[in-house]
Design a protein that fits this description.
By secondary structure, the protein is mainly beta. It is built from 3 helices and 15 strands. The chain has one domain: Sandwich (Jelly Rolls). The chain has a 15-stranded antiparallel sheet that branches.
Amino acid sequence: MKMKFVGSCALIGALTAASAADVATWDDRDSFLLNLGGTAIHDDFETYGINVAPGARTLSFNGFDATYDGNDLFGIDDVVNLGHGTGPTSGAQYLLADFGSQSARSLTFSFSELVSDFGVYIRDVELTSLSYETDSGLSGMAVNLASNDVIQFFGLTTGGDESLAFSTITFTMLAQSGTGQDGVMFDQLTYVPTPGSLALIGFGGLAMSRRRR
């Protein structure tokens, strides 16, 4: 439940001890939600059509894109019994990414504004361990090898330090146990835009409303 220190923080310039201490990862969603640095946006993938298919591609969601670089299955799915009794952590749908085939696969979430905090449930990681890396230089272990149908939560908070805010976070397969493919489900995604990003969005909306007048 309690925060775990982030694995690395490779940033341009010196990072103060105070700001480094504010960066944390979380394995409990309730604790993560209590430590957000702003207004959260939630997406449980329930409002999109089923579009799971093989191959690398990018899908667009509410304020973010998801890009998969593999050759296996990727997309919104609602299959409850996917191999080992797995399914969504909430509702009826989830984002499926098939990690495996004995070679690295990655899934990148790209946001339309800078994000200070991010969290997501990751289910059924029984063959691969997943690392994470942001474009602001934060990186480490997201979830470890577990077993069939195990639900793990990964959350990242930056303590409100906008120098650590990010617009992309990538999950990459680190290790594989066995020879099969690992269909991993992502669900109940949460992110927090930085105050500066929200201000820009609000200013843009105000400017557009004035032009309409």
